[in-house]
Amino acid sequence: MSKLGTLGARLHRGEIGYDFIKNRKIWYGLSILITITAIVGLAVRGLNMGIEFQGGAVFNTPKNTAVSVSQAEEYAETASGHDAIVQKLGDGSMRIQVAGIDTDAANKIKNTLADDLKIDSEQINAELVGPSWGDQIADKAWQGLGIFLFLVVIYLAIAFEWRMALAAFVALIHDITITVGIYALVGFEVTPGTVIGLLTILGYSLYDTVVVFDSLKEQTKDLTKQTRWTYSDVANRSINSTLVRSINTTVVALLPVAGLLFIGGGVLGAGMLNDISLSLFVGLAAGAYSSIFIATPLVADLKEREPQMKALKKRVLAKRAKGETEVRDDDEVYTDEPEDAAPAVVGPRHQPASRSRGRGRPSGKRR
């Protein structure tokens, strides 16, 4: 842990760093490849929509039903002629979901299940779910997503600038597309919990991006007044200075979500936990990735297109080629550092007063 803290401090001071901006084409290509894979998976396999969106019936058996999950699933599919989803609950009861059936079919399936499970039909609780409820949830989710994205773009455009708002918007769409594509490839059931998870990851995805943007805005206030660093240099410094914090917050957030997904859903068999935990797990990981490898490099690309930034880049490159030194207003001289060194913070540096200042001078006091 001490080594990690030392690494974070050195990254923040610019003593070491990785050139994320220089390799941005690699990150763009990787993101495009992942996004295309997600879209293809979504188009080919589609989403496994839950009963709340398709409509159907849910049958709840009594406690301590003496039948295995696989056997109950076989009984339900034989009785209904449709695919069935069976979940074993903590008290020994079972939740059997069958999509795409009406009231008459539900009553017949209930009686057949009672005979197969060797229990009284009155002990099975049957609930019909209409697809209109799921449609309402989907409509509300799309409305919430649209309002959220609109407010985010407006806020970032006012607090920072429109280029950062555009980059954050692209990163959010990137995260949502990957998360939905993973759902299609894995085949997990899409339920209202999934929708809640997708809306939740938007805030997490935006958090790291705003942290980097805030650092970038602070360090580029008087960027055009110097000839030492380009906009891409300072953007790279902003990523490195917040890198360890982004990794720490992401790992801390992923640990409990991973517990829900792998232990709760996988080991304990609580399938309903998969609905929200998978979207949170994939979304958090994708959000951390996009804030570092997509959003900030995209801002640097957009800013470098500005005429003043193009002129600054020419001056900086010309000065580096000549190997000149830069004299600042405080009469301090800075020599050019190696190309692989991480860029320093733009702006004058204020050195602490020397402790030896005033030594050997008469104090002015008379004895």
Automatic annotation (TrEMBL):
Record bears the keyword Disulfide bond: no
Composition bias type Acidic residues, residue spans: 327-340
Protein export membrane protein SecD/SecF C-terminal domain span: 114-304
Signal peptide: none
Keywords noted in UniProt: Cell membrane, Membrane, Protein transport, Translocation, Transmembrane, Transmembrane helix, Transport
Family indicated by similarity: Belongs to the SecD/SecF family. SecF subfamily.
Functional summary from the UniProt entry: Part of the Sec protein translocase complex. Interacts with the SecYEG preprotein conducting channel. SecDF uses the proton motive force (PMF) to complete protein translocation after the ATP-dependent function of SecA.
Protein name: Protein-export membrane protein SecF
This protein's encoding gene: secF
